[in-house]
Amino acid sequence: MAGPAPTSDKLYAALDELRRASDLSLPRHHAAWRVVTAFLQQIDPRGEADARQETLVKVLRRIGTFAGGSPGEAVRWLRTVHAHKARDLWRAGRHDPVRAALLDDKQRAADEPPAVDRLRAEDDAGPHDDAAALEQARDALFTRLEERLTATALASTTRELRRVQARAAWLRLVTTADATAIEQAIAPSAANTRDALYKWIERGRTQLLEVLDAWLAELGGDADPDDRRVPQTLRDIFGERRADAGVPRPERRKD
Q1: Which of 6, 50, 70, 210 could disulfide-pair with 194, CB 3.0 to 4.6 Å?
Q2: 225 Cα distance to chain centroid
Q3: Which DSSP string corresponds to 151-207?
Q4: Beta-strand (E) ranges in the chain?
Q5: pLDDT of 204 over the 90 cut
Q6: For the chain, give me the number of helices (H) and strands (E)?
Q7: CA angle centred on 189, ends 183 and 190, rounded to 5°
């Protein structure tokens, strides 16, 4: 938001306008939303953008509960909503490495070798084409995923969502792309928040694990180890994340 930061008086006026509105999405309320957004940036300039986004969603859902009658009460109400959402994200993120990595794009397990190294044969020698190695593994996996989706009676929109979720899972768990890169890669599809993106990745991971299990079952236990190496390595990569990732936990607040 250009210009001076909004005052508490402007915040109160914006929240008062929004709580009286019959349709919060109308263009005439956009200025009020900009004030709320700018005030969040002002009270938490170094905080997570994800927490501020979650706060705006909570304001959208709960603006009717705002009963403040003064600028001071408006500030306290918004601070309280934001503090709760920031705490929720911290509680959830500290229990899960995938979600934590999305909230902190610099986080990487120092002792975890890149996926491309794990996909090479141990006795492989000579120059490597890393991009080609990953591309071949990805194409083989996603061809099987497409066959699986085509064989279902799912609506076309649902099939497309599952493709996007699987792609997000591949980008995060295999190529270790950060959240911004994933969002750019799956555009124009986009999760509304980082929390939603995390859920997409977990759902995509589940789909790809099912494909990999079917692939390995098709090969059978007596197959040549070289034939099993790629699907087994991918199965290990996708399967080593927390088994309960994405499952609701008691400490999470409910909206």
Answers
A1: 50
A2: 35
A3: TS---HHHHHHHHHHHHHHHHHHTS---HHHHHHHTTTS--SSHHHHHHHHHHHHHH
A4: none
A5: yes
A6: 11, 0
A7: 50
pTM above 0.90, yes or no: no
- Per-residue model confidence as pLDDT tens digits over 205-249: 999 999 999 999 998 877 777 788 888 888 888 887 544 444 444
Q: Which residue has the higher pLDDT, 126 or 213?
A: 213
Cis peptide bond prior to 4, omega within 30° of 0: no
Asked if 15 and 78 touch (Cβ cutoff 8 Å), the reply is yes
Q: What is d(CA 147, CA 101) in angstroms, rounded to the nearest whole number?
A: 31
User: Is the preceding peptide bond at 188 cis, omega within 30 degrees of 0?
Assistant: yes
| pLDDT at residue 58, rounded to an integer | 86
Q: Decide: helix, strand or coil at residue 48.
A: coil
